[in-house]
Amino acid sequence: MLKLLSWRRSALQTLNFSNHPSRICNSRFIKQSPSPSDDIYDPPFSPITKTLKSKNASPQITLDSKKDQNLPFKSDLPFDFRYSYSESNPSVEPIGFREPPRFSPFGPGRLDRRWTGTSAPAEQLVDPESVSEERDSVLGDPLTEEEIEELVERYRHSDCARQINLGKGGVTHNMLDDIHNHWKRAEAVRIKCLGVPTLDMDNVCFHLEDKTGGKIICQNINILLLYRGRNYDPKNRPTVPLMLWKPYAPIYPKLVKNVADGLTFEETKEMRNRGLNSPPLMKLTKNGVYVNVVGRVREALKIEEVVRLDCTHVETSDCKKIGLKLRDLVPCVPILFKNGQIIIWRGKKEEYS
């Protein structure tokens, strides 16, 4: 019985222990103790390290501040800066702009040229003879057949590290800087062309050689090998200011007219219906290689009056670019773009009669 009572007293004492003053102090101390999330050894985020600044320490110069010291960029390249050189025609004037021309894609105050909405023209007059002489001096003596074979064998593989993919934008301005960056450590760069620019590979080759100063030493369908030259100096490479964003394409006149030139409204409608009901000449894929399209369309228009190209899997903007290039290269008259189909009329010309 005494043992039972002693057990009850000890239980009551433990129950009343929370009212003890020392227990209150301990409880306050526990409430004021840091939580596990506030522990310096288990912080919720990465700790911020504070660096002590000495009085004699020189101020640190970041990359951005170095770039800002050289603003605005002054480039001696002897051509007008455009977003795309191979996919734009300087002779065609736009009828409107989707953004004010004052918004330069090079950034405000970063270039010493004025942006017109389509290009940044070179302000200084350039002598073509001096430009060609300087280019020839950089290229040096022509490569021998053995040297060309060695470079082709080195860069012909598809997993080559010195490769640049040329897409539907064609030869863009920022691509020039990529090519010169590859030329720092390599004699040549491999360029793989896909999409709309492959319709006119001669135009792509011309702008690559004209804008970079290099020389194409090998071409295999849509694969190009661009050589930098024997006397190329990476330290004296030209200054290529980068575009910070892609500018909006301006507004150009309509490619397809309601009534084709030389036809009446009924004849134009009949030509469109005939083209939609005819079998397709070719089926184009997205970002494909269109090297033989111009030749096949030209041969087909010698026999047929209307030709249809199936571009179901090609983007609408690319379809219009394809029709524009075919109009200039074949030549022909695009009369309809509908549901991924391009209808082409050969026109009333003596060469097809």
UniProtKB/TrEMBL annotation:
GO terms for cellular component: ribonucleoprotein complex. Residues 141-239, 261-353 form the CRM domain. The keyword Ribonucleoprotein applies. InterPro entries: CAF1P_plant, RNA-binding_CRM, YhbY-like_sf. It holds the Pfam family CRS1_YhbY. One of its GO terms (molecular function) is RNA binding. It comes from the Eukaryota. Keywords: mRNA processing, mRNA splicing, Repeat, Ribonucleoprotein, RNA-binding, Transit peptide. Residues 119-140 are annotated as: Disordered. One of its GO terms (biological process) is Group II intron splicing. This is CRM domain-containing protein. It comes from Tetracentron sinense.
